[in-house]
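# step 3/5: fold
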Amino acid sequence: MSEGIRDMVRETELSVKDLVYPIFVVPGQGVIQEVKLMPGVFRYSADMLPPVAKELKSLGIPAVLLFGVPEKKDSTASEAFSNDGAVQKAIATIKEAEPSLVVITDVCLCAYTDHGHCGLIKGGVVDNDSTLEVLAKVALSHAVAGADVVAPSDMMDGRVLAIRTALDESGYTNVSIMAYSAKYASAFYGPFREAADSAPKFGDRKTYQMDPANSDEAIREVGLDVEEGADIVMVKPALGYLDIIRRVKETFPVPVAAYSVSGEYAMIKAASAAGAIDEERAVLEVLTSIKRAGADMIITYFARDVARWLCTFL
């Protein structure tokens, strides 16, 4: 079969419009720091983001996902909802530079707490209910700064409803919620934890993130988030959970996002650097498999590279 015929009958098409580019933002000015475990990925202060936003827009990438790395941490994650926080400043800066770029913000406490967990600690354990109020404050602060979408990644029960209620009561009814609905307790988050300085100081996150062995649980978790008002649901990680992406897509009438996480990125980068694989072919194959599984949008650190590669095919 010729290349032309193969193109005509291709069942799955990966597009630049499918991509979301994650960005780590830090306090200060003039900061561009490469993440050691993630070659080609950087932390930026807000003032360094306009050229990045303009480049993404020129490449056709429609959205970014912001993660904050604060200057100070405490037990209540107070920097997470500060009006002068790194994320809040980054939102405003990006929106001024490229108003049409969709700004999604991660809503979690792990990078902001002095213990590194995604919720407040009471009696030595993560307390679900007291965390909800703080998550709602974080989401609202992002909305006030101009975020288009808030994305709670904490996996606390009831957080979508708490956030939706807070947004609606404050008049931000048009701010959407992208829920990390099926977020697994994965071994593939290591490089991210270095980038965001978010590793837990004790224990692990298995009590509130999902067991990688479970599939039916993912459907229950997604269902709860949809009932509470999630506009988009997410499966994280992506490559090891293609079956979950497919099940979610077939079960729920909402857009599905998939997060190709830091460990997936780092593995491909390392294999490519060793000469074991062709990076471009491997990345496009992996992302096509995620799209084929049913993802409507793919969060990937390769987004800028993929946008350039796809342009060469047009």
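# step 4/5: annotate
The first strand starts at residue 19 and ends at 26.
# step 5/5: archive (pending)
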